[in-house]
Design brief:
By secondary structure, the protein is an alpha/beta fold. It folds into two domains: about 15-140, Rossmann fold, CATH 3.40.50.2300; about 160-365, Methylesterase CheB, C-terminal domain (Rossmann fold, 3-Layer(aba) Sandwich), CATH 3.40.50.180. The protein has 13 helices and 14 strands. It has a seven-stranded parallel sheet, with helices on both faces. The protein has a five-stranded parallel sheet with strand order 2-1-3-4-5, with helices on both faces. Strand 1, helix 1 and strand 2 (about 40-45) form a beta-alpha-beta unit. It is elongated and about 60 Å long.
Length: about 375
């Protein structure tokens, strides 16, 4: 374990503090991160109480945080941290079914991203996993982190859910007969960006298809969370689902999703294809299918995320006559995917996250 230090950082390395109640996991994460010359592990803590003191003393650039810990759970600590001392936090999760909900809540509270806990059998693929951990720590260091005034509830109350149809009717914009389809792609920071994009949409908004980079097991819970908070109905897509107004289909983790024609209907095609841009689901796969199947009847939206997935697909959509919008840098957690799309000339418009829904509804109303 590297010695803790409060000295200057002349190499401008990313300074990381590891918080995990497992001594073995702290050691393994430290070993993985210390292999990269651009990263310095400045210390570790077994619980949030020790972490609090070390954050103040060591001033790390990035915090890796265990999802569940004794004494004070990771969520309580994260919520407190993001209100008092906002900083990039990377959640370290085993991605079990129980931790899935907790990890999604952590992203809601302000964590930049999450990563799978490294396995101890180094000969069975740890190198690939180590690269992901290192890459996400570096990405987190460059992320735009904003102070959280207060935490939003994880789900809407039963009363709010029961009242949703009446509220939706009051904000209906007359899209029930539209043939337009809104295709959305997002990655890092996308879980909250999608919520902010979908929440203002009326219950009769054009049909929506979504790719969010997310592993298997997460997408169903994430879709249920969105469905509880939005006027449009949201669910994990199944093969053959019809793309309908007022409904959003989220690509399932570890599967690709395309839009295809089935007679007079637009349907979701779910298949176990190869990863594209190292992703499954891939935004490019969805966007290219929209360009081919929908043409000018599509609207492409690319949101916050690391890398370039979706940039070429969005360009294909624009060249096929679709309206296209990219999220602006100021409102992105990571300005990677939108930046690449803008650089290619794929974005007809650039909008802030707050302005994204109005922009898309305006474009959907164009003939």
């Amino acid at each position: 374990m590297p010695a803790e230090s409060i000295f200057s950082n002349p190499m401008n390395r990313t300074r990381v503090l590891i918080v995990d109640d497992s001594a073995l996991m702290r050691e393994l994460l430290s070993e993985i991160l210390s292999q990269d010359p651009a990263i310095e592990v400045v210390g570790s803590a077994a619980d949030p109480f020790r972490a609090r003191e070390k954050i103040a003393r060591l001033q790390p650039d990035v915090l890796t945080l265990d999802v569940e810990m004794p004494g004070m759970d990771g969520l309580t600590f994260l919520e407190e941290l993001m209100r008092a001392h906002p900083m990039p936090v990377l959640m370290v999760s085993s991605l079990t079914e129980g931790e899935c909900e907790t990890t999604l809540r952590a992203l809601e509270l302000g964590a930049v991203d999450y990563v799978t806990k490294p396995h101890l059998d180094i000969q069975s693929g740890t190198l690939e996993q180590a690269e992901e951990i290192v890459g996400k720590v570096k990405m987190a260091a460059a992320a735009h982190v904003r102070r959280k005034a207060r935490a939003a509830p994880p789900t809407a109350s039963p009363q709010a859910r029961n009242e949703r149809p009446a509220v939706a009717a009051a904000t209906s914009l007359g899209f029930k007969t539209t043939h337009k389809v809104i295709a959305v792609g997002a990655s890092t920071g996308g879980t909250e960006a999608l919520l902010q994009f979908l929440t203002p949409l009326p219950a009769d908004a054009p049909g929506i298809v979504i790719v969010q980079h997310m592993p298997a097991g997460f997408t169903r819970s994430f879709a249920a969370r969105l469905d509880s908070l939005c006027r449009v109905r949201v669910r994990e897509a199944q093969n053959g689902d019809t793309v309908l107004p007022g409904h959003a289909l989220l690509a399932p983790g570890n599967f690709q999703m395309e839009v295809a024609r089935d007679g007079a209907k637009n349907v979701a095609r779910i298949f176990a294809g190869e990863p594209v841009n190292r992703h499954r689901p891939s935004v490019d796969v969805l966007f290219h299918s929209c360009a081919q199947t929908l043409g000018a009847n599509a609207i492409g939206v690319i949101l916050t995320g690391m890398g370039a997935d979706g940039a070429r697909g969005l360009l294909a959509m624009r060249q096929a006559g679709a309206h296209t919008v990219a999220q602006d840098e100021a409102s992105c957690v990571v300005f990677g995917m939108p930046r690449e799309a803008i650089a290619l000339g794929a974005a007809e418009e650039v909008a802030s996250l707050d302005g994204m829904a109005p922009a898309v509804l305006r474009l959907a109303g164009k003939r």
